[in-house]
Fold these 4 entries.
Entry 1:
Amino acid sequence: MEEEVEIGKELLTGLLTRMGMEASVEGFLREGSLHLEVKGDPEGILIGRHGRTLDSLQMLINRMVNKQLKSPLKVLIDINDYRKRREETLQRMALRLGEKAKRARHAVTAGPFNAHERRIIHLALKEDPFLETESLGEGEVKMMTIIPKRREEGKDRLF
């Protein structure tokens, strides 16, 4: 198992060096996935707008690592705890937009979001009995709609 971690760290460190970035890379295996954490990148160049550059970097390293392994392994990259901060931001946004949808009594649309971000929003609002969520569009990046549920006969619903 240490082999996968070393391969991932070596490939990511090599790529960052070639890009002229000074950053350290730590790696570990958790739940069948290789996690690589980058510390450095003070300008956020590797993260990009809404993490799009980070997603691309992760896809590239994922391909590079799996080309050298016998069995496939999911590779997850985080830079300066960006993914954790982004998850918290998305959860707060989902709750805020959910309240807005309930107050206005009509659907609220936000996005676009990648699959991972949409999942965070769906899960943040899953327990609210007065709301449902829906993904809209085609492809990898889609919009999200937060919909207040209509009152059904005999049920305690919003309206």
Entry 2:
Amino acid sequence: MNYIRERREEGCIFCKKPVEKKDEQNLILYRGSKTFVIMNKFPYNNGHLMVVPKRHCTDLEKLTIKEFHELFDVVKLAAQVLRTGLHPHGFNIGINLGKAAGAGKDHVHVHVVPRWLGDSNFMPALAETKIMPQHLEETYLKLRSVFEELVKKSHRFERRRKT
């Protein structure tokens, strides 16, 4: 109901949120040089992340080679963070391009959704309710610390800038 009732912001949230410098409030977990990772405020499942190019771009083929490579390197990092922090049994990883494909935002982004055996239940079908086993802010804090730990260990990713 929060999603349905929430006032829709004008403009692109993927362009606005990173410049606000309120990472915890905006659920931004990681900032690379060309991409960032943000939690879905209205997740399909606990730990639902989105990897987003910083530059507003509407199609994959419009990304530069460096943006494209970092986008998918960070998708790998996001999956590793989720595997380490939440221990899912699998993932749904996908991109919706265009309204016909279900894209709610006209800015390329990759969904990384952790899945567990038995994570679907009767609640969405019967009560139009999604059960989330952990509060969004609690998940944010846990995953942020795992991002920081894994990025610190890796020379491939730059360290997250404090904002």
Entry 3:
Amino acid sequence: MNYGNHLGNDHLLSIIHETRVQWLNALGCTELDVGGCGLIMADVMIAYKNEGFYGDDLLCAVFADEIQTSSFDVLYRLSTQRKGERLLIAEAKTGMVCFDYQARKIMPVPEKLLNKLRSISPGSN
């Protein structure tokens, strides 16, 4: 909770990070190994739609989008159930770049990850 008595932006960014870590884990990856390289977050965008409050159970839906040669976007929709209705709290995007931490250079998206991302991308259906 922040001074406005609602979910603070710094905490929402932490929630997004944890969501991405769990999502990558479900894909059989980590941020340090997505099939031969790691990931760096190049940018982040958060659009707040409603206030989040202490005690809200957040549902975080995750999608891959804008898959490029060495990068892709992760899209997030964070919502809660309040008074019997689903309420959208925020939408977010993180731009992820494939990166070889030892060589300190950008790498292509590994084939293993590319296939998984394409299978769950909104544009793939």
Entry 4:
Amino acid sequence: MLILTCEQIRRIDRLAMERYDMPSILLMENAGAGAARIIHREFEYLAHRTAVVFCGPGNNGGDGFVIARHLHNAGWNITIVPVVPPDQIKGDALINYTIVSRMPIPTASPDRTDEVLDRGEVVIDALLGTGFKGQLRPPMDEIIRKINAANKKVVAVDVPSGLDCTSETAAEPTIRATLTVSFVAIKTAFLAPEAADYVGRIEVVDIGVPRELVQEVKNRPG
């Protein structure tokens, strides 16, 4: 079982791009596709295979767009809820948003959160990633409260939104996940006592970086 800090995982991402010329969008694709495979495997027994994917403005949201595309292709009924307007989505996340926006995948605005939560069997949290610190602001805080109150199967992408991966503390509110799909390794923050109520079961996705790089970073703590 590989356990790394969030800083170590960020270092792996950076060195994969700098040393091996791996494009960041390839890492996003590998992460999202791997997460989608796990979600499909874990929940394909559901009657309607409906999922709502809540996507934030950053790379975590970009992972969510990739997941939505792959689950759609696997026959799922997907609704995407981008929590910011398209002009606030940047970089690799924007590329993946553009792809799904041209597919027959419905999107809903955050003010329809209650409605889409009623229809979804699985809720996918791709709101905030490992860079989150501090307090949640609207509309994130209210969306997370509604997700937690909906009594659905919740999958957190890389980290439950609201969990500070560096300080290992949880904001109010923080996503309470049924399953957390963690990229590269289990994060040390997931093993903190305060995280127990939020991460649920943990699955790890290999995002395709060279194993020698992972081992090198593992052997250099900090």
